[in-house]
Amino acid sequence: MVVQVTFEPLKITPVGYVRKNDELHEVFIEILPEFKAAMDGLREGDWIKLVLWFHESDTPERRRILKVHPYGNPANPLTGVFATRSPYRPNPIALYTVRIHRIEDNRLYIDWIDAHDGTPVIDIKIFVERYDCPKEIPIEEREAHIREGRMIGEVNVIPRKGEHLDELEEVSPAEYDAVILEIGPKTTTLTAKELVELIEALKEAYEGLPVEIRDRLRTREGRSP
């Protein structure tokens, strides 16, 4: 029996456009007014992932191109487009990793990119090393308790799930990786021993705060000075 699957058309809405000022050698993303609130939390210096729609390559003929010469050089062997960065694809989506140099109103001034002026921006995501530059991390993704992660300033503290800890009786605190720390885009892990040392260091830093600051913190937390 053959089952026929019908797909609904996908709807992609531009959130902004690439703008280029050749005289000033500037490139910026102009966010549309209705999406400006989505910029909240972005900071100058942040690395972001841009998802663009190469509208000038969006033709039926170019969508059917499945093999290209990488970098447009005929000397390179024909290669499937999924193994290249060619703009000719079944869906002409482009990805860039860029740094925000400054933010002015609804404009994100970024590094130079080869996208043409007027190219639609369909999404922006913050760059996260753990996802975008994967490397050997002792705590596997399935073991990370993502929902329990706490954002404190630019630091995201993600604990390891506590299941099956009875199987770790032979593991020392210096060997057991306890938390993932994401600091901006950077990722590292702390063992249980290092976590305790960090807690002790933070306690010392807290005790070193001016008495007036500590009193205000206690008052805010509902504790008597």
TrEMBL record:
Keyword flag Metal-binding: no
Protein family (similarity comment): Belongs to the tRNA methyltransferase O family.
Species assigned in the record: Thermococcus siculi
Gene Ontology terms: biological process: methylation
Domain TsaA-like: 12-136
Protein's name in the database: tRNA-Thr(GGU) m(6)t(6)A37 methyltransferase TsaA
GO molecular function: methyltransferase activity
Organism placement in taxonomy: Archaea, Methanobacteriati, Methanobacteriota, Thermococci, Thermococcales
Source organism superkingdom: Archaea
Keywords carried by this UniProt record: Methyltransferase, S-adenosyl-L-methionine, Transferase
Transmembrane residue ranges: none
